[in-house]
């Protein structure tokens, strides 16, 4: 039994070696080989909004216009209304534009709320509500009062 299993493994390794020898030269010669996945955004048609999430640059411009800013405003950033950690997606309706200073303040509130969710001190539904209405909770003490929907 064991000898048969060993010969099967050797047989598959041989197939893998042949496939790799055929594909490796094509992979190395491709323009994408060696480009960093993380780091600087090399594609000018997309904007990085959070972590590794990118959206089309045109969608970011439309979000800025919808939220009352100039489409090419450099001091305004586009981000999630509800972050991916709480089930938010990179959809036009889940994006918002904020001045950089406000976005930084919102990110701090978001971090505190996510920490509370992680430690079981807040439900995901309450966390979503608090992040959407983050200005109301920015300086308010946590009273334990739940938001009704």
- H/E series, N to C? HEEHEEHHH
What's the average pLDDT? 76
Termini distance? 63 Å
Q: Total number of helical segments?
A: 5
Strand line-up across the major sheet: 1-2
Rg over C-alpha atoms, rounded to the nearest angstrom? 24 Å
Overall 3D shape: flat
Low-pLDDT runs of 5+ residues are: 1-6, 30-39, 145-149
Biggest β-sheet: count, sense, barrel? 2 strands, antiparallel
Number of strands: 4
Strand fraction equals 5-15%
Helix content: 40-55%
Give the class from helix and strand content and strand pairing.
alpha+beta
Q: What do these coordinates show?
A:
- With 149 residues, the protein is α+β, with helices and mostly antiparallel strands.
- The chain has 5 helices and 4 strands, in the order αββαββααα.
- The chain has helices spanning 2-29, 57-66, 100-118, 124-132, 134-137; strands spanning 46-50, 53-56, 76-80, 95-99.
- The protein is flat, with a radius of gyration of 24 Å.
- The N and C termini lie far apart (63 Å).
- The model is unreliable at 1-6, 30-39 and 145-149 (pLDDT under 50).
Features:
single chain, alpha+beta, two-stranded antiparallel sheet, 149 residues
Summarize this structure briefly.
The protein has five helices and four strands, in the order H-E-E-H-E-E-H-H-H. By secondary structure, it is of the alpha+beta class.
Spell out the blueprint of helices and strands.
Blueprint lengths: L1 H28 L16 E5 L2 E4 H10 L9 E5 L14 E5 H19 L5 H9 L1 H4 L12
Helix pairs in contact: 3-4
């Amino acid at each position: 039994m064991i000898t048969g299993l060993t010969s099967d493994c050797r047989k598959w390794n041989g197939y893998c070696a042949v496939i790799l020898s055929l594909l490796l030269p094509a992979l190395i010669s491709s323009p994408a080989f060696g480009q960093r996945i993380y780091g600087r955004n090399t594609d000018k048609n997309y904007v990085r909004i959070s972590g590794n999430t990118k959206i089309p640059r045109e969608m970011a411009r439309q979000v800025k216009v919808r939220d009352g800013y100039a489409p090419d405003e450099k001091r305004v950033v586009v981000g999630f209304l509800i972050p991916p950690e709480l089930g938010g997606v990179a959809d036009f309706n889940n994006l918002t534009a904020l001045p950089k200073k406000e976005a930084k303040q919102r990110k701090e509130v978001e971090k505190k709320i996510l920490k509370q969710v992680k430690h079981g001190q807040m439900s995901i539904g309450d966390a979503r509500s608090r992040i959407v209405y983050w200005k109301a909770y920015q300086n308010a003490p946590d009273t334990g009062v739940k938001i009704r929907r």
